[in-house]
Design brief:
By secondary structure, this protein is an alpha+beta fold. It contains 4 helices and 12 strands; from the N terminus they run βββααββαβββββαββ. It has a single domain (about 15-215), classed as 3-Layer(aba) Sandwich (Protein Transport Mog1p, Chain A).
């Protein structure tokens, strides 16, 4: 008997992560509330405020375009030292589904075919996206996956001479349903200076991803201090 089709995902995020509403009016209310919350916890520098606003707006736009199932954001002020405005530590998480149709391919979406596609030397990286590491096959509890580590640049040139925001991103592509689909889990952060500990956190969270089908029992196991989402 064939296995039932995957019908839902499970991901455990710490309680500090907040789910992002994708409906336009709800998103604007969320963005205003984020600004108020961060202001109450310490006056952020203007670059930090702009960076956070740009990141969450870019995240929302990407989610709407790509049919994302889950979007979440984490943000907290960082003490920058005496006499300096706090900076911001922030990260985002999205979970979506890739299909053969959406990728315009008849090939099954397996670890091997995804690796081949993402490892092509003629893929044409631009100034907006660049691989930091070669694509790699990894084993997650949710299934075999392809891991991509990339640097993204979002936003254009600003009036103050700055040029958008650089985002360090980890993408995990997990094939399922006999290669017809793949779960696409992405974590990103503008805090490149904290790449080491944040990448360790992203890897830990990726290991909580589960794919459920039919009568599969829900695995509620969260990371330490976290809740299932």
């Amino acid at each position: 008997m064939s296995r039932p089709a995957v019908d839902s995902f499970g991901l455990a995020l710490p309680p500090e992560w907040v789910c992002l509403p994708l409906d336009a009016p709800a998103f604007e209310r969320f963005a205003r509330q984020q600004r108020r919350t961060l202001a109450d916890r310490g006056e952020l520098s203007r670059p930090a405020q702009r960076r956070h606003e740009l990141v969450i707006r870019q995240l929302r736009n990407d989610c709407v375009r790509q049919g994302v199932t889950l979007a979440a954001v984490f943000a907290t002020p960082l003490d920058a030292g005496a006499g300096q405005a706090p900076d911001l530590l922030a990260a985002t998480c999205t979970l979506s589904t890739l299909t053969q149709t959406g990728l315009a391919t008849d090939l099954p979406l397996t670890v091997h075919t995804i690796l081949a596609a993402t490892s092509r030397t003629d893929r044409g990286d631009t100034a907006d996206i660049a691989d930091l590491e070669p694509p790699a096959a990894v084993d997650l509890p949710g299934g075999p996956a392809v891991k991509l580590v990339r640097m993204h640049r979002v936003g254009g040139d600003n009036a103050d001479g700055t040029s958008g925001v650089r985002l360090l991103a980890e993408h995990f592509l997990v094939p399922y349903d006999q290669g017809r689909r793949a779960a696409a889990l992405t974590f990103a952060t503008p805090n490149i200076e904290f790449a080491g500990p944040l990448r360790a956190l992203f890897d830990e969270l990726a290991n909580t991803l589960r794919l459920f089908a039919g009568d599969d029992p829900t695995d509620p196991t969260p990371p330490v201090g976290g809740d299932a989402a």
